[in-house]
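Changelog-linked ticket: beta-D-fucopyranose example.
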Amino acid sequence: MYNFPKGFFFGAATSGVQSEGSKNQINKSIWNHWFQIEPEKFIDEIGPEIVCDTYNKFKEDVSLMKEVNFNSFRTSIQWARLIKDFETGEVCEDAVRFYSEYIDELIKNGIEPIINLYHFDMPIYLQDKYGGFENKKVVQLFVLFAQKAFELFGDRVKYWTTFNEPIVPVEGGYLYNFHYPNKKDPKLAVQVAYNIILAHSKVVNLYKELGFTKQIGVILNLTPSYPRSQNEKDLSAAYMADLFFNRSFLDPMLKGEFPKDLCEVLKEHNLSPEIEKTELEEIKKSKVDFLGVNYYVPRRVKAKEIKDEKFENPEYYFDYYINPEGRFNPYRDNNEIHPVALYDIAKNIQENYNNIPWYLAEIGIAMDLESEGSISEDGFIDDTFRTELMREHFIQIHKAIEEGSSCFGIHQWTFIDCWSWMNSFKRRYGFYRLDLVTGKRIKKKHSIWFAEVAKKNYFK
Ligand code: FCB
C-alpha cells in the first residue's frame, strides 16, 4: 500500500495561453503573433485563439476538476491579458474580473490554486519594443505586473510561482528555434537567462517586502543527466549537461548563487552576461518557499565525438545517446520512460538543496488521438497505458517520501487536453479529451484511477 502524507496535493497543471483562448484579450502574447505570421509552423495550423476556451468555460471546468477529486490546481495569469498598459501597469478590468472569478470558483470548491506568473508568454508589445527579457527594462516591467497580481489576488492565493520552466524560453527563443523570436545567439541566450533569474529574484523579494506571508516559489524542469558509462569522459559530459540545464537555474534560485564552473565556462567562451553588483545581492537575498518540478524524460549523454568549432549551445560539451536498455513510449517520439528519475530528483533536492519543500508540478504521458482511441461503450476513452505508467512514477515519489524527501504533492500535466505550442493538439495529456470541433470535454479512464488515489490518499 502506498500512502501519502496528510493534505498531499493531487491535481493538474495548465497555463493561461494553453487553456484560456484569447477572447477579450486586448494585448497579445508572442504566441498569437507568431501564429499570425507563420501559421504553417504549428501542427494542423491550429493557434492559441480558442484552445480550451477556459475563459468562458471555467465554471464548468472547475466542476470537472471536482469529479477527479483535485484538491489543488495550477494555472497562470497571462501578462498580456491582465495588463492593459505595460509601462504604467494599468490593468484590464475584464481580466481582473475573469481571474478573480476563476480563482474564487476554485477556492469555493475546495481546490487550492497555485498561480504562476510566466509560462512562455511574453507580450508581443514588450518583445517588439524592448526585445523581451533581452532587456532589463522588461525585468522591471515584469516586477510591476507581478505587483499588480499580488495586490489583486494575494489575499486569496496562497501559492505563487514566478516562472514555469524558465530555461525553456531561453532554449526555444535563443538557441534551438522553437519559440519566438527564433534567434540563435548563445550570448543573448545567457543574458536572457540571467535577466529571467534576476526578474524571478526581484519578484520573490517584492512579495516579501509587500508583507505577503503565504508562499512563493518557482517551477523548474529538472531532467537528470545520466552518463552512458562510468568512464571519465562520459561522466564529465553528464556533469556539463547538468550544469547547463539544471544547476544554471537551480543554484541561483535556491542557493542564491551561480555555479562557479558555469561562470568560468561562460567566460571562456566570452558569453558572460552584463551583471551589476546590486543585482547579485538581490539574487542572493531571494529565498523561495518551495520548488515545483516538472519531469517527463531523462537526459542520456555521452562524451562528445566530434568537437564543435565554436560554442553554439551546451551540446558543445556532450552528445546525446539512446539508452540501449531503455523503455520507450511508442506514442510519443519514442520518449524514454524512466520513473526512477523522480526518485533521483527527490534525492538531489534532499541532499544538495536542503530538502526544500517541493511538489511534482508536471508529470505527463503523451498519447495521440489514435493511440487513445475513440470513446468506448462505457462512455470513456481508454488510456489505461497512461495509468500503468503513472502508477510507476507515483511509486518512486512515495519511496522518496518514505526516505525523508519533503515532496508535498503531484500535479499531472494536464487537466483538459490543451494547446501545446508548436505541437498544437498533436500530443494529448489530459484527464479529459478536448473535442476540437465541439469543444466538448470527454473523460478518460485514467481520471477514475486518479480520482480514487486523490480521494483515499493512497493506492495499492
Ligand atoms: C512542459 C510545459 C507545458 C507543456 C508540457 C507538455 O514542458 O511546461 O507547457 O507543454 O511540457
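Closing comment: Example verified and attached. The pocket of beta-D-fucopyranose is lined by residues 15, 18, 164-165, 221, 294, 362, 364, 413, 420-421 (CB under 6 Å). The chain has a mean pLDDT of 97.
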